[in-house]
Design goal:
Layout: E1 4-9, H1 16-28, E2 31-37, H2 48-58, E3 65-70, H3 74-80, E4 85-90, H4 93-109, E5 114-119, H5 129-137, H6 151-156
Parallel strand pairs: 1-2, 1-4, 2-3, 4-5
Bound molecules: 4'-phosphopantetheine (PNS).
């Protein structure tokens, strides 16, 4: 049976830290869905369609990675894709409490789905989409934070 994983998130926008987790997961699973939350209540910088397009652009080298948007419950998306694994990156202990709560919540609704945590690479442990937006707002270089192919798209939003 194929090992299918889902990496969920807002990805507003995708960072080098997200990409690192996606690349490492692509080596561990047969198929990896990058699930972009269509969060209408949050007023994101990029629409979910734009976020999916940016992720597609930076994952062209990964044959088994499929970026898609989703609404509603993550486990419903995972079940629809026959995915038995959710993968989340943990940057620091501060991420753990929230992520553990989500993992336990998902476990109650969908006991057959396992959440795997993957430790962020040290280079990216400080990185977040919020930091990217803060840098872009103040015209700081985004080179170390996001893949080069999407820098213009971010700067154009400011
Ligand atoms: O990048 P983020 O904002 O930390 O990602 C959060 C995300 C998308 C993983 C989370 O909000 C999510 O899974 N939302 C979908 C709704 C859902 O399934 N909630 C879980 C209830 S236990």
């Amino acid at each position: 049976m194929d090992k299918i994983a889902v990496i969920p998130g807002s990805f507003d926008p995708i960072t080098k830290g997200h990409l690192d987790v996606i690349e490492r997961s692509a080596k561990l699973f047969d198929k990896v869905y990058v699930a972009v939350l269509n969060n209408s209540s949050k007023s994101p910088l990029f629409t979910s369609e734009e976020r999916v397009e940016l992720i597609k652009r930076v994952t062209t080298h990964l044959d088994n990675v499929i970026p898609e948007s989703f609404s509603g419950l993550l486990v419903d998306f995972a079940r629809a894709k026959n995915a038995r694994f959710i993968v989340k990156g943990l940057r620091a202990v501060s991420d753990y409490e929230y992520e553990c709560q989500m993992a336990l919540g998902n476990k109650i609704i969908a006991p057959e789905i396992e959440t795997f945590f993957i430790a962020a690479s040290p280079n990216f442990s400080y990185l977040s989409s919020s930091l990217v937006k803060e840098f872009a707002l103040h015209k700081a270089s985004l080179e170390t934070l996001v893949p080069e192919e999407i820098i213009n798209d971010i700067n154009q939003k400011f």
